[in-house]
Amino acid sequence: MGRAVKRVVYNEQDIAGKVRELGEQITTTYPDGELLVLGLLKGSFIFLSDLVRQINRPLQVDFLVAASYGDNTFSSGSVRLLYDPETTLEGKHILLVEDIVDTGRTLNRLMDLLEARNPRSLEICALLHKHIAKELKYPAKFVGFDAPNEFLVGYGLDHAENFRHIPYIASLQ
Ligand code: PRP
Questions:
Q1: Which of 106, 99, 111 has its CA nearest to residue 77?
Q2: Mean pLDDT in the chain?
Q3: Does pTM surpass 0.90?
Q4: Which of 30-39, 65-74, 105-114 has the lowest mean pLDDT?
Q5: Quick one: which atom of ligand 1 is closest to the CA of 43?
Q6: Which residue minimizes the CA distance to atom 13 of ligand 1?
Q7: pLDDT tens digits for 102-136?
Q8: 82 to each of 9, 63, 64, 87, how far by Cα in Å?
Q9: What is the CA angle 66-84-128, rounded to 5?
Q10: Omega of the bond prior to 134 within 30 degrees of 0, cis?
Q11: 30, 139, 142, 38: which is closest to 88 by C-alpha?
Q12: Which one of 2, 37, 39, 67 is most buried, by most CB atoms within 10 A?
């Protein structure tokens, strides 16, 4: 597959413990109201499925699929939704679930878009946060790990679409 794993950064136990903690925090943060957990595909698919099983209150699940335009396209940094949640966002607590915050560009753009739909609240839950984003307009309320600035794969994260299935998070050589 071109690149090999260098080291395990978070093993299965680390991840399971952290996901449990996040689930408890989220449960106590939302004592009332409708909660819609929105997973950003593809990277969040494993994290999301583990996380919602640790949240002990009623909720709904939906997904977002977004396409960012690269720097060399004419449409200059906008985000287009390839799949838009079917359920209405207005009046609900929306929790956007990300696998990793890197430059923060994805979140800046998506949050603007979601905010415009008048949710009751709008927060971010990220399993990994590199804390290198200089212009993150919306800080993540729930963060699993402060991640090292390395290329990370596994538990949903990919390199050229590979490695998503490995059950731990590793850095690449
Ligand atoms: C990755 C990752 C985050 C985003 C973080 O997604 O899953 O969504 O990049 O980077 P940023 O903070 O610099 O915007 P990617 O676009 O690779 O798609 P994927 O989720 O399908 O892997």
A1: 106
A2: 91
A3: yes
A4: 65-74
A5: 20
A6: 103
A7: 888 889 889 998 999 999 999 999 999 999 888 78
A8: 32, 10, 8, 15
A9: 45
A10: no
A11: 38
A12: 39
